[in-house]
């Protein structure tokens, strides 16, 4: 089953409103195994909307529309769907009653323009809207299914979840092909390097692989299509490929699916009953913020120091003036002293430190923008790693956080 | 001039990635007065992408594409644009050199697959990409303009702003109607409260006003349409309305257009030669991270302590055990002690502290999730403010940061 999401609304075409509805619907349809081939957005313009609907119905099996169900004259989605499918518009008296009650609860008479919201293409299954005045509709004709939903996300989403999802599940059934998806997450290798290593795995039968570059990590997305009853087979195929990828990329693969670097580090620290503290310079607090992003982080994260100035590096962390003078704040020696210092102050099992040049200013030939030292202190001793990152200030900071967390992952 | 935004990328059609690029481009094109009639999204599928490009070029004057410029075999936007426009692909040696240098800086040889990124349809104006390896292109043929941009927003946005915007400004000229836009930013008032106060200003002739709720602030967007040569008039109208809004909302308006809470606080501290330090509990480092977001922050931000555990509140900040026991870590007394403590340790002019219940767990009837105390210490003394925020953990944390910065703004 191939689907298209059609959204209408002038606010979308003015850049005022971010199209989160299309994103929401696409995610839901994908997890049902429905292939979404197109998103189309068009304003409240009858000619263009009609043409878009005509094309969508021609090229897709399932069309989900959002928007254009309001009471005003430029809200025309239902009317144009009826026109394109050659259906009449009919009043649904139950819907009319509900709209009247909606206004009744607000002690206001129903404006006559709202009557329009109770009309639907003949043969529609009405989708109730407990939140607003615009019911939706589901229409099937000539093997095409059209789902008509309101625009506001807080009306659209519950309508989809409560009424459309169960219908689609039935339509799809056990014998339709669904997508069995898996995402492997990689740190410390670029897109081309991964492609080179996995090249021969990228075109396997019945399994697709795609590489997605995220800000501070790469995602390898594997998809195996199968029917619900054959999903065991598909999962076995995914297991095999995952195993092979992990064999080739080793510990560069840090997680899978919903796992994030932070969640993995947190889980590992929790499982091993380890505590951690941080001494941050160039990341300015981002590392602590990352470690405390998920609930329950107070179990392993004690806290730390943001020693943005050299005086705080000395005063709060005990970094020596000698090393600051001899090597500068961005140096292996200072990174080590910072990690050692915060571990001593907090008594944590592990400690991490960051010091670097986030840019855009402050770089030199010897110490360019993006140069970062990350220090690690444990009961066994102290060491620091040197990194050279590229990109804007915020990228350098995010990459530093990710590299620091990755270092913790590899130590534990 | 009628425009269409075409985005390609399988991740968009799987619901993995929210299409912020289309939103960004649409907003920019709209403010240039260019009418965006369609958004179309299609996956990395050559047949469908070709068909979408063909249709876009037929029905629109300006087509802006994002995505499909990567080094892998399924990245085909430039190649398909060339096919549809009946142009050859040619190598651009300057781009090739830059891509080689990109890898050179990383001490890695350029993979041969990246060579593809230096090929463009004949006659392209090349748009440099200082951040990644995918340059963009601008092509004009038969009165149609096609702008080809990379997918990742952090590469696409600066390319559009630096190279495409000036080109489009020239094409559009002085006599087209543009949108003169102004955004006023408000903290500490909700949508309905603002609407109530500004109701009579919302339907002025020649000027539209829209309220947009952001995560931790409200935006009031004012638009006056005029030609470039009449923009003086439009700006005068905007000035008048802005003045009236500021009169009614007072210091709830914290900034305008590109100004952010952080940039305003940083500028104020710099101008007044004041230094600041932070003591964070529930924000876990986010406040320091916000203060160090922009370059030059080391002039005013000394650093601070993330005292996530009570022992660090005592050990590093000198919070008294008595108050921790009597009032708990989330209390006015502890917030005050934290701010006082970090100011003493760092010798900064100002100090701010945060302590609260970010959730989702840890709340009680007496101290519900979202309860936050923010402490302020100056030479004149110490005080703390109580807030009750609502929303998810991340919202509570972001709102706390924003309220803390807003407090600094109002103190200075």
UniProtKB/TrEMBL annotation, chains A, B:
Similarity comment text for this entry: Belongs to the CinA family.
Endpoints of the signal sequence: none
Upper lineage: Bacteria, Bacillati, Bacillota, Clostridia, Eubacteriales
Name this protein carries in UniProt: Putative competence-damage inducible protein
Domain MoaB/Mog per the UniProt entry, residue ranges: 4-170
UniProt xrefs under InterPro entries: CinA, CinA-like_C, CinA_C, CinA_KH, Competence-induced_CinA, MoaB/Mog-like_dom_sf, MoaB/Mog_dom
SMART domains linked to this entry: MoCF_biosynth (SM00852)
Organism from which the protein derives: Desulfosporosinus meridiei (strain ATCC BAA-275 / DSM 13257 / KCTC 12902 / NCIMB 13706 / S10)
Pfam families documented for this protein: CinA, CinA_KH, MoCF_biosynth
